[in-house]
Write a structure and sequence with these properties.
mainly alpha, 10 helices, 60% helix
Length: 209
């Protein structure tokens, strides 16, 4: 059952992202959720409506220079944030999800979708969560998109605060080194190794072990 939920969640999130990109307008998005989005959950409108505000709140918006527009979680007796017209306690508050919703999911999906100047602008905004950069970069590498993977993973390691790097960042480091090797970017490869020696000793030690 958990695998089914994950598939439904990813399917809904992908459709939600496409719907949001149309106008980047919350009421229009919620119209899509009720008219089409619930199909991802076999017509379960309640689940779709409860999930939609959460995904909206974490979605980077191009009209805001890739910042999000988070919604405030309503009080139990306040109008529900899904615009159903009911109180929160009688609506989305009652819906439970089988798993937590990953905070970086909509950023990760966006990084997989954006291309060219839009992708570059999103990465230059430095607003992408490190976990989203990691996941999108690894997925791009696995699908043979080495140029996209390099661009995204470079943003992951370009930050000045490496303490924010996800715990699973070592495979991304290995992949980026391999891409540099394959493409003949010897200077970039050497610079990345120097950074690791200086700023991430534990990773360098494991690599040399």
């Amino acid at each position: 059952m958990l695998a089914v939920w994950v598939d439904q969640l990813l399917g809904f999130a992908s459709g939600a992202l496409s719907a949001i990109r149309q106008q980047e307008h919350y009421p229009d998005f919620m119209t899509w959720v009720r008219d089409k989005g619930a199909q991802a959950f076999n017509g379960d409108v309640a689940t779709a409506q409860a999930l939609a505000p959460i995904l909206w709140s974490q979605t980077p918006l191009e009209r805001l220079d890739f910042a999000s527009e988070p919604l405030a979680t309503p009080g139990r007796n306040e109008p529900c944030w899904c615009d159903s017209g009911r109180k929160y306690k009688q609506c989305c508050y009652r819906v439970n999800f089988p798993t937590d919703i990953p905070e970086q999911m909509m950023w990760m999906l966006s990084l997989r979708e954006w291309k060219g100047a839009t992708l570059k602008a999103a990465l230059d905004s430095q607003q992408a969560p490190p976990q989203a950069l990691l996941e999108a970069g690894l997925i791009a590498a696995e699908s043979g998109q080495t140029g996209r993977s390099m661009q995204i993973l470079e943003s992951l390691f370009d930050g000045s605060d490496w303490s924010r790097l996800p715990e699973q960042a070592e495979p991304a480091f290995e992949i980026l080194l391999d891409i540099y090797q394959e493409r003949g970017f010897t200077r970039k490869r050497a610079d990345l190794l120097d950074d690791v020696m200086e700023r991430w000793p534990a990773v360098f030690a494991r690599r040399g072990a």
